[in-house]
Amino acid sequence: MNERILRVLDFQKVIDRLIQHAQTSLGKDLASKLKPSTNLEEVNRLQDETDEASQVIRLNVPIPLGGIFDIRPSLKRSVIGGVLSTSECLDVANTIYGGRQVKDFIDGLDEDLPILKELVEAITPLRNLELEIKSCIDDNGRVMDSATERLRGIRTSIRTHESRIREKLESYTRTKSNMLSDAIITIRNDRYVLPVKHEYRGAVGGIVHDQSASGQTLFMEPKAVVDLNNQLQELHAKEKQEIDRILRELSQSIAEEESFLSENVRILAIVDYMFARANLAREMKASRPTMNDLGIMKMQQARHPLIPIDEVVANDIEIGRDFTSIVITGPNTGGKTVTLKMVGLCTLMAQSGLQVPALDGCEMAVFENVFADIGDEQSIEQNLSTFSSHMTNIVDILNYVDDRTLVLFDELGAGTDPQEGAALAMSILDEVVSRNARVIATTHYPELKAYGYNRKNVINASMEFDVQTLQPTYRLLIGVPGKSNAFEISKRLGLEQSIIERAKSHIGVDSKSVENMIASLEKSKIQAEQEYEEAHKILLESEALKKQIEEEWHRFESKREALFKKAEEKAEKALANAREEAETIVREIRNMKTDAKLKEHEWIAARKMLEEAQPQLTSKKETKEQNITKETFNPGDEIKLLTLNQNGIILEKVSDNEYLVQVGIMKVKVKRNDLQLIGKKKESYQKPLATVKGSNYHVPLELDLRGERFEDALLKLEKYIDDAILAGYPKVFIIHGKGTGALRKGVQDYVKKHPSIASTRQGAAGEGGSGVTVIEFR
């Protein structure tokens, strides 16, 4: 299929809509490479795939395609010995999990889905690799302490050293608070420091790591913690070495399973691609076409795929059985070009495995080539006129036309003398028809109106025009050539009747006969279509009624079966009880026989037991009435426990016939029949819960600097960032407002230079926009 036809028919716009329905980057990649196939077997396989995915979508149970990533670059790096990052390893684990979710989902469906089930059968679960990765890396991409014993020990030592450093520095904040700008401990260059006033630099002593913007505060590391800070840095280096070793081992494990992972990714891409095509079909209200290689095309109520459903006019198209060519005549602006593009685009979609926007039962053909000469393609660079440009394109098309070709001509023969153009158009059509190609051509030449009556395998068609409203209806009328509505339009617009009659006298007899014939055909066509629509509507209503009756009958049968089964179970249970009681009676009688003398009252008692052993079947009506009279209990209700003659409170409902009750200090499960309601739940005093506040409770997630002087704002910002780092926040929000932009610029200049800040960005639409700066710490 040549690229030009894809461009002319706007096939890329269909691809863009398809990409939007893919849920993974894998599926989007496949969707972007969509191309029509010319092999009937391959097209049918693609249509089968789309149809199976559509079956699943109709169940209204979404397929779990979330958490699946394109891990192919990571797999390649692992195979050549590269060490993957924590996020890459986590993507591999999540993709393994996502693949298993898709496999379980498809396997759990009762539908007949041979293609999908064969695909997911080839997905390898790889649970061990997933567990290995998840046991080392948490959901945030951080290597956990539990990854190895060595890492746990190193991090324990880190926390111990940090605690000792804090203790020493806190003693400074207590004893030498007058020398400090603020009684806090902060971090500079990954070392714990104190904010010392410049004039007390010598009194505190130690190493200066940084200073404030004003220069009045020095961030110093006292001598007392230098060694501890050095040891802490060594521990951090060991921690990094151990993490690198863990990631290297995980990368090696991933490399060993590369072939299975690559196959899983390939299958998941195909599955996502299938469901993207099915979701596009659902959006377009499309249906599966029956494909053939005989050049037969039949669509009922077909719509242009790129025009909104509530705006497009649906049309019936049929070609390939009784005729191989359609010539659409009539005036411009009637929708002829849209109809041409609709046929071409639906053909390309069908050959790409996409369903077409038409009613069920449509047929589409697989063509080796689809050619179109549509629109004004005048080439200024090549110094070609409109006519020359069209003829250059048509000459190129004629070099490839055969019986497996669909050709679409728009305004054939236009751009030159009408008589010559019409003659040329008929000659070109004769040539293409003789090669048994499928042709749809539009023209406004009146000479071609009778073309279909004089040629075999050719039929005329036209676009309907409403003379009353002077507007085209965009409905295609097969078998009816287009007629000029000049006289009717002129009359509606107020032209004098005498002028119209004089104009009619200038038309030859042949032209009048043709116009009358066209009018008669158009009337008959419209009447036949109305009758067909009415008959089709009655048929649909009858089928719907039949389906409703069948569903009601099936429900009745199911309900009857359920009642029979329930009655049988109840009867069997009653008979079992009766047999048990009968056996008890028989044993009693045998015991009485062992006595020397049988007393009369003993025989009477035995007979009474036999009579009482008859099954007692409770009617459904009585059971229902008993259930209605039963009182329900709610947590907090006061009750009396009849078996103990004690009062208590309902704690919770365990089952339909059992409750958890507190009696005194005891909690017991009690049958509903052993309870008697005393009083409903009372409003009780609820004891307030004690709350435990962490060390970071006083540090908010945002700092509002609006209205502050520039120098004061920077001082507040500096202190707040230190507090946020100590609190362990991953990110914070600085609110500076928009205003003149001076404060915003000052804040952004400061945070860009801060060593503990990893990155900054402007707030999103829901975060305050340019009036907020978002800071993310290292």
CATH class of the largest domain: Alpha Beta
The biggest sheet amounts to:
6 strands, mixed
The end-to-end distance, rounded to whole angstroms, is: 53 Å
Instruction: Tally the structural domains.
Output: 6
Q: Count of DSSP helices?
A: 23
Average pLDDT confidence is 82
**Count of beta strands:** 23
| Cα shape | extended
Radius of gyration: 43 Å
Nutshell version of this structure?
By secondary structure, the chain is an alpha/beta fold. The protein has 23 helices and 23 strands. The chain is extended.
Strand-helix topology:
Layout: H1 3-8, H2 11-21, H3 25-32, H4 40-57, H5 72-79, H6 86-107, H7 114-121, H8 127-134, H9 149-175, E1 186-188, E2 191-197, H10 201-204, E3 207-211, E4 217-221, H11 226-256, H12 258-284, E5 290-292, E6 297-302, E7 315-319, E8 325-329, H13 336-351, E9 363-365, E10 369-373, H14 386-398, E11 405-409, H15 418-434, E12 438-443, H16 451-454, E13 458-466, E14 471-478, H17 486-492, H18 497-505, H19 509-593, H20 600-612, H21 620-629, E15 638-641, E16 646-655, E17 658-663, E18 666-671, E19 675-679, E20 702-704, H22 710-727, E21 731-735, H23 742-753, E22 757-762, E23 772-777
Parallel strand pairs: 5-9, 8-12, 8-13, 10-11, 11-12, 20-21
Antiparallel strand pairs: 1-2, 2-4, 3-4, 6-7, 13-14, 15-16, 15-19, 16-17, 17-18, 21-23, 22-23
